[in-house]
Amino acid sequence: MEPTPEKKTSAARRVTKRTTKAVAYRVDEFLSAKGPRFRALALTHAFNAAGDTLVAVALADVLFLTPEASEARGNVFLYLAVTLAPFAVIGPFLGGLFARYPVAYRRGLGVASAARAVVALLMVFNLSNNIVLFPLAFLMLVFSRVHGISRNSLLPVALEGSHELVAANARMAKIGVVSGTMAALVGGGLATGLGALSEDAGSRAALLLSMFAFAISAIAAQGVPFPPKPDNQGQRRGVLRVARSVRLAQLATAGVRFINGFLLFLLAFAFRDEEAGLFDFGFLLGAAGVGYFLGAIVAAWLERILREEPMVVAALAIEAAAAFVAAQSFGLVAGAALAAAAGFAWGVAKLAFDGLLQRSVSHNDRGRAFVRAETLFQLSWVLGALIPTALTIPSGGGLAAAGVLALGAQTLYVAGLIRPRPEQPLPSSPSPDP
Fold first, then answer.
1. What domains lie within the chain, and their CATH numbers?
2. CB 335 within 8 A of CB 398
3. pTM higher than 0.85
4. pLDDT (tens digit, 9 = 90+) per residue, 361-414?
């Protein structure tokens, strides 16, 4: 006897309910793998990353996909200036604030997310007004930096122990990639589906969704624990000093970031010159995201057998090899493979450096150290991106130059690691009084 339509509907509801519960359980298990305190930090990061992606989808058409190449390059110049400006503004302020009140890390998570929700709503009503849109994008990036630096500074506090910092950073990166990918699918679907209604209907819808994502991130931030009280409450710290290994790793990671910026924009303009469409650009960005995700997986595994420094060396070697290979036969597939390799290298290098810094710097100085490092990384990325934006570079020659640069950075970093530290002179005894 064939089941009635009512029974079929009831069975479908039961299957949907069981599937939803199973997915929710898996997601909660993924977020809670390193304890309940980590879960709260991971949750606020997941919704913040989703909001970031939705904003990027909403602004992609405004910033890059313009009919005139000169206009596209002008928009990119302006965008690069906007991405760098937050560090010039918030760097000194955040450094002093975190030095004086390390508990500001925890406040920064919620305040930054709530502020981004407000800015996203304002962008909805000013999407076609560049005079207002770019200052709003500037504010969006400022609060993004505040959130990211606060999150990195709080990660050791959210763990049950100080071990497996690279693995914890890698899991946080994977959470960001997964949530960002889901947001990209939703935002891309909105942009495509609503594009028939009006020119910017999809972008406005993506910005509205980002507003809700940032709001949920602000709520989730309330469950993140406060850091320990500083050693000298309310007193400004002295000069920030970090170990030589951290300084060398920071410079090498900045080299990876510089090459990433160069490669990404070299590929983007090469594709644009060939009149590639939105799908090709999305494929390129998706490949970079997949590479970063794989880098996070591999970094967590490498932590068990290697220190952080060799991981940074390996990242530079992978970037050099990928650039040389792609230079031999450039195209969509080769470009996507190169973007994936660059994302992989950045993931391994950045997660290794974050773990090294978190392990080597006390919680009192961690915020200032991350402000300095993130400022250097962003400056490196912008400088790398400016070269193919300002100059029309043949893709083959540009890729070969990137490979040579990566090899040079790797050689200098290894030489710095193996160079023996100069011996400190013994303090001389005071001369006797005459």
1. 34-227 (1.20.1250), 242-419 (1.20.1250.20)
2. no
3. no
4. 776 677 677 778 888 888 888 888 888 877 777 878 888 888 899 888 889 988
